[in-house]
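Figure 3 (text version): structure tokens given as input.
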């Protein structure tokens, strides 16, 4: 790099000096042959068709409007911009050798531009916005005083910037937007030749190639290269920008630039950065989002990776349609597995193929070259034959679960990082057919290591300069091609060294053999990505996350991709799910996927790619608007961590610009109200008493947990059968808990409307809106009554004094006879003495819970005690009395659901199908044995 800089620096400058001497002497002779500039000026006047607007009638051009001269009548300035001039310029205009300013912009001048070569004094050249048809190659020759050049908007025949321009070493502005310019950006626009260049505008041309290295250290402030129309457009890396620290406005949009964005930390004057419509990959760096000077940034239509950047509110940001960020919410960090894989991709320059094929925030969801175990650990990385250049990242050693690493058949250079040998689960590493050198780390004996086809492996340094991504062509081929070359070289030299030739042939045989071997290996490891990673994949270990270590199997010392403090982090890890994913899994919120509608929105059924079902609650728009986004997020991220066997798990959420979506575990049997009040219509069997009792206890346990949560006290406020959901085992979970907290606060009527349902409202709450845990107790009492009677909290069809279940129930409770009539007729025929006693006890509890005064109602722990004593006989053995699971926040959604269900399965007893037709069972264990 350094060398070529020096080369450019010395050679052209030497040339320029020669040129300078030649042109200056030649044109001095020429100019002296003309005593004054009158002839040229009259030629100019005659060439112009329409100059009525300006007074050029005087015989002496020095008296003309817009013309300035020296005392001895040499023309120094023609400033006739915006004069509606038509016509063309005379060929000999370059005889005006004292000309310093030529301004003809915004006219309708046409015809070919004459050469201006030799105008050594010319400083300002403004001929933009005309209709000139061509520009000669010697146009700039000898213009050593040039400061400002504006050629924009002239439809020249295709041209390229002539080398002669190099003489203009004082150039400050060169502007040639939309001039049909072709070729590459000349290196001499860099700091070495044009050390004072501050504006370079070459937009809307036909340029190709990359940004010259010579831009490094430039004083440029304004760089417009946008909108090239050539097929290859401007391309390659824009890394050099990191050394262009004076830049204020950079427009590169509409090109084919690629690779990661550079470090912007030195560009502390940058205000406007337009990168849209290119092929940039990698994360948007914090050095950009953190730039204080930034005002406008356009990122749309690229394949950026990593977290969606969060810019300051004062920055106008355009990044619509960049859907390759891991999440669609600005500033939220990616899953730690995503971070590690991006760190790995960094050392191979964030190749396009990964940027395009690595979607979303879960590397286990069909990411190219990545295979996972059933519980979401990356076990295989297979990047074979992906044309990768660069080096092997030492960050591979952070993927502790890695079992196979296949990097064969690329153009990787450098050494094999030593840390890889410490990967605890590694069984195979294949780096064959690359350009690696250095010692192969000493792996455990059990690890299969393939490193053939790396000519310099084992040597201290590479024998040839490594192929860099910029100069891929012409590098020494790593595989068979390389060998052929070696053999040919062998023949040439072979005349005097037969031994070498024999050696080479030996090497060739060895090579052919090992190649075949590698072929076999790679075939057996080519199984990339089973479409349905699942528990059938072999040894699936379910690891419960250690709550003190959120990073699970991943190392805590993560490479900083998104940086530390200035991003608002949500601890919820991968609980953020993109709107695209939710749209996909719910069939674009198809009405046929609707599971139900609730106080907070509509619930849709969704099915993940592996068949796992989820429930997606789409919050009613407007409902959440009053809550600040931050507040909403922290509530949600708290709720995602509330885990109880009898609370419907909130698995994730999505905050889109317009939408708030919550993702819950899917409860296949639907609501309790369905089984209590709608069983005939839904073709269900009514629930038997055992099941009702178990459901009551499940609900009591779930709500007891909610009431007892540390720090934030959760009061459900809307307990009712339609918020109680059932699994296939007919065990119940309380849903919609905590959602009321997300609703706007402070408006009593609104709170009441949102948080309660008539018939379940505690009297004091209905009157005063005062919220304590005792209002949940009241609602719970109503639910118990419903379980006993099979009647709804409010039965409009009943006579006046029986509409309200609580009132009616109290009346019926007065004596045994009336009470028996209150019991759900469906239970009646099967009521044994024992069961009737149980029902009576629950009825007492229900009455207790519905006491008029809150202080008269028991706590939920009391209800749990009563109910569990009644179910004691039937109680299955539970492994974990606390009912609280840890959840690994790094698991993917399907993995979380699976694990969740696996743990639930411990109590997966079929209580459900018994119904009225079966008598109460003395022991659940015997039920289990029967089936
Ligand atoms: C044009 O300029 C000449 C001399 O500079 C002056 O005498 C004449 O009046 C001007 N004509 C008009 C129309 O302004
Ligand atoms: C010059 O070009 C413009 C825009 O292309 C066009 O509108 C105008 O008619 C042209 N004028 C002449 C004199 O050719
Ligand atoms: C611009 O250049 C292209 C070739 O690069 C040529 O085909 C086209 O005719 C030119 N346009 C004009 C207006 O001269
Ligand atoms: C930036 O400048 C530094 C120091 O001169 C140099 O080492 C580095 O290669 C330059 N980077 C680019 C991309 O030109
Ligand atoms: C860049 O984005 C801003 C904000 O959306 C917009 O106003 C501006 O026109 C865009 N500029 C370009 C060059 O696309
Ligand atoms: C390595 O680079 C060379 C030169 O660009 C190329 O021909 C060859 O296909 C590359 N090898 C692999 C395995 O991609």
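Below: residues designed for each position.
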């Amino acid at each position: 790099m350094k060398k070529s800089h020096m080369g450019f620096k010395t050679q052209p400058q030497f040339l320029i000096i020669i040129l300078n001497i030649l042109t200056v002497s030649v044109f001095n002779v020429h100019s002296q042959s003309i005593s004054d500039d009158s002839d040229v000026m009259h030629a100019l006047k005659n060439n112009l068709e329409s100059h009525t607007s300006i007074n050029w009638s005087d015989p002496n051009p020095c008296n003309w409007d817009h013309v300035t001269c020296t005392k001895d009548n040499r023309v120094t300035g023609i400033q006739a911009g915006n004069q509606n001039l038509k016509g063309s310029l005379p060929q000999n205009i370059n005889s005006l050798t004292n000309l310093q300013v030529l301004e003809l912009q915004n006219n309708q001048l046409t015809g070919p531009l004459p050469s201006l070569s030799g105008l050594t004094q010319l400083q300002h050249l403004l001929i933009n916005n005309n209709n000139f048809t061509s520009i000669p190659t010697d146009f700039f020759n000898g213009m050593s005083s040039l400061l400002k050049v504006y050629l924009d908007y002239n439809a020249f025949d295709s041209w390229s910037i002539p080398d002669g321009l190099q003489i203009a070493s004082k150039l400050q502005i060169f502007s040639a937007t939309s001039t049909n310019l072709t070729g590459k950006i000349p290196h001499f626009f860099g700091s070495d030749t044009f050390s004072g260049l501050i504006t370079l505008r070459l937009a809307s041309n036909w340029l190709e190639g990359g940004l010259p290295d010579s831009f490094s250290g430039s004083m440029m402030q304004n760089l417009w290269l946008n909108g090239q129309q050539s097929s290859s457009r401007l391309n390659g890396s824009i890394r050099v920008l990191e050394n262009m620290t004076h830049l204020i406005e950079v427009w590169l949009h509409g090109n084919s630039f690629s690779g990661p964005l550079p470090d912007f930390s030195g560009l502390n004057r940058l205000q406007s950065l337009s990168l849209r419509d290119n092929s940039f990959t990698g994360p948007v760096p914090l050095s950009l989002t953190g730039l204080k000077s930034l005002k406008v940034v356009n990122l749309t239509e690229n394949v950026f990776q990593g977290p969606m950047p969060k810019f300051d509110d004062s920055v106008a940001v355009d990044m619509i349609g960049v859907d390759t960020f891991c999440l669609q919410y600005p500033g939220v960090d990616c899953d730690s597995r995503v971070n590690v894989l991006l760190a790995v991709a960094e050392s191979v320059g964030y190749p396009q193929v990964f940027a395009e094929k690595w979607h979303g925030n879960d590397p286990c969801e069909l990411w190219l070259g990545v295979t996972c175990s059933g519980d979401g650990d990356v076990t295989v990385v297979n990047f074979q034959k992906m044309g990768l250049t660069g080096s092997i990242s030492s960050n591979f050693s952070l993927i502790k679960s890695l079992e196979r690493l296949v990097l064969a058949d690329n153009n990787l250079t450098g050494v094999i990082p030593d840390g890889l040998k410490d990967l605890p689960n590694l069984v195979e590493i294949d780096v064959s057919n690359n350009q690696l050198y250095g010692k192969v780390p000493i792996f455990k004996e059990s690890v299969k290591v393939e490193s053939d086809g790396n000519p310099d492996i084992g040597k201290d340094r590479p024998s040839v300069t490594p192929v860099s991504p910029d100069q891929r062509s012409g590098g020494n081929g790593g595989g068979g091609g390389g060998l052929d070359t070696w053999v040919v070289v062998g023949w040439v030299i072979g005349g005097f060294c037969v031994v070498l030739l024999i050696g080479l042939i030996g090497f060739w045989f060895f090579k052919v053999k090992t190649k075949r071997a590698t072929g076999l290996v790679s075939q057996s490891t080519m199984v990339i990505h089973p479409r349905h990673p699942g528990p059938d994949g072999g040894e699936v270990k379910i690891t419960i996350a250690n709550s003190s270590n959120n990073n699970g199997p991943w190392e805590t010392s993560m490479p900083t991709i998104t940086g530390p403090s200035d991003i608002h982090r949500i601890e919820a890890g991968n609980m953020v799910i993109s709107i695209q994913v939710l749209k996909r899994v719910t069939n674009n919120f198809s009405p046929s996927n609707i599971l139900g509608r609730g106080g907070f929105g509509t619930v849709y059924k969704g099915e993940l790619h592996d068949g796992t079902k989820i429930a997606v609650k789409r919050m009613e728009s407007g409902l959440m608007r009053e809550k600040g986004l931050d507040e909403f997020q922290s509530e949600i991220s708290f709720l995602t961590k509330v885990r109880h066997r009898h609370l419907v798990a909130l698995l994730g959420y999505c905050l889109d610009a317009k939408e708030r979506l919550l993702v819950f575990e899917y409860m296949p049997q639907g609501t309790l109200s369905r089984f209590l009040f709608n069983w005939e219509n839904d073709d269900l069997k009514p629930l038997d008493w055992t099941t009702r009792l178990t459901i009551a206890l499940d609900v009591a346990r779930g709500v007891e947990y909610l009431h007892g949560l540390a720090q934030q006290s959760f009061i459900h406020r809307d307990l009712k059968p339609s918020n109680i959901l059932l699994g296939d085992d007919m065990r119940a979970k309380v849903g919609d808990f905590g959602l009321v907290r997300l609703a706007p606060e402070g408006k009593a009527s609104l709170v009441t409307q949102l948080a309660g349902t008539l018939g379940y409202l505690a009297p004091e709450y209905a009157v005063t809106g005062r919220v304590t845990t005792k209002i949940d107790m009241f609602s719970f009492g109503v639910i118990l009554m419903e379980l006993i009677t099979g009647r709804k909290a409010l039965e409009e069809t009943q006579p006046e004094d029986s509409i309200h279940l609580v009132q009616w129930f109290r009346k019926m409770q007065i004596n045994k006879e009336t009470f028996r009539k209150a019991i759900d007729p469906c239970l009646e025929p099967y009521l044994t003495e024992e069961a009737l006693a149980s029902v009576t006890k629950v009825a007492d509890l229900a009455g207790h819970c519905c006491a008029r005064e809150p202080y008269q109602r028991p706590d939920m722990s009391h209800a749990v005690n009563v109910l569990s004593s009644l179910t004691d006989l039937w109680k299955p053995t539970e492994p974990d009395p606390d009912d609280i699971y840890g959840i690994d926040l790094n698991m993917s959604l399907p993995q979380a659901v699976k694990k969740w269900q696996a743990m639930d399965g411990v109590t997966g007893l079929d209580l459900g199908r018994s119904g009225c037709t079966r008598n109460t069972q003395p022991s659940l264990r015997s039920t289990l044995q029967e089936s």
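The pocket of 2-acetamido-2-deoxy-beta-D-glucopyranose (ligand 5) is lined by residues 253, 274, 276, 296, 298, 316, 318 (CB under 6 Å).
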